[in-house]
Amino acid sequence: MRGQRSLLLGPARLCLRLLLLLGYRRRCPPLLRGLVQRWRYGKVCLRSLLYNSFGGSDTAVDAAFEPVYWLVDNGHVSHRPNPGFGGRPPPPGKLRVFVVLVIVLTGSIVAIAYLCVLPLILRTYSVPRLCWHFFYSHWNLILIVFHYYQAITTPPGYPPQGRNDIATVSICKKCIYPKPARTHHCSICNRCVLKMDHHCPWLNNCVGHYNHRYFFSFCFFMTLGCVYCSYGSWDLFREAYAAIEKMKQLDKNKLQAVANQTYHQTPPPTFSFRERMTHKSLVYLWFLCSSVALALGALTVWHAVLISRGETSIERHINKKERRRLQAKGRVFTNPYNYGCLDNWKVFLGVDTGRHWLTRVLLPSSHLPHGNGMSWEPPPWVTAHSASVMAV
Ligand SMILES: [Zn+2]
Ligand SMILES: [Zn+2]
């Protein structure tokens, strides 16, 4: 940034020096002297506005992304003042632009499924096939709605302020309060969050200790739903796409015929309004579901890898640095929150018995996660090997 400024100012400075040289040698006229003074004044003003000893490429990128941060932070339907220092986070029910977008897009897919897809498959599918689609699609939809609602309305968990009896590892520089292990400060919520993963604009909420499972389950079931919709509607999409192409060709032919005055009266429409809308809706459904399945699927896989390793998104970066630092000293880094792949999943999903895979994972469940988010003792059923890793 500084280099670019000197690149622009360099030729201007050279011209000014030449002018000054000429001006002082030949008793510079008042007009030129005035111009020189204005230039100097302007230069001082510009430098005082732009100069920052902490400036750099990071500051430039932050400034460029400022409108996006503003949109994430303030793009809500109803305006309320932002919480100040130490203030409470926005109330969970407060709608934000990305939350509205998720609801509108999901609602549009459900509406198309009922209004366009259902009448088509009712005529063509067999009864057992219809039953399977009916049960699967509604089970998937209920899990998406439940986990999304829980993820946006459940607070991620905050460390209690003013208590001295909790085990802390550091002091938050912004809150000036003790920080328990795995707690990080969220600059959007403006407070510390227990086992913080990230701040999600699609939820308008931080993802932390108490709603991490809801966030992941929403991503997983939404990806599953999108894959189901795009795979299941592949034949309908191909037919609708071919029909749209045919519609375009017929419209073109009709216009050509009118131009050639072949018709003596307005030709009848080849496709009804309902048919046109159905075909376009099916193409929209397939494209939207496929794109979301790809993007959200990649995010879900990434989070699944992190959960398998017993890490959050933030800890991934911290542990990577620590691993490199210790490697340089010839030592091996051990993640103290890694209980082993299967046990990590069981702890994350709150599965204590075999029956819980059905009642707590495959059915909507609002059970609390293990622990209070401040101390991280392994659950009693964690195997001896993993417990010994914990002790390292
Ligand atoms: Zn903090
Ligand atoms: Zn946050």
Keywords:
single chain; mainly alpha; two-stranded antiparallel sheet; disordered C terminus; binds zinc ion; Palmitoyltrfase_DHHC; EC 2.3.1.225
Number of strands: 6
Mean pLDDT: 83
- Number of DSSP helices? 13
> Major sheet, described briefly?
2 strands, antiparallel
| Regions with little confidence, pLDDT below 50 for 5+ residues | 76-93, 387-392
Cα end-to-end separation: 46 Å
Folded structure, characterized:
The protein has about 400 residues and is mainly alpha-helical. The chain has a domain at about 95-150 and about 205-390. It has 13 helices and six strands. It has helices at about 1-25, 30-50, 55-65, 65-75, 95-125, 125-155, 210-230, 235-260, 275-310, 315-330, 340-350, 355-360, 385-390; strands spanning about 170, 180, 185, 190-195, 200, 205. The strands form three sheets. It has a two-stranded antiparallel ribbon. A two-stranded antiparallel sheet has the order 3-4. α5 crosses α9, α6 packs antiparallel against α7 (about 210-230) and α7 crosses α9 (about 275-310). It is flat. Residues about 75-95 and about 385-390 have low confidence and may be disordered. The structure holds zinc ion (ZN) (2 copies). One zinc ion binds next to β4.
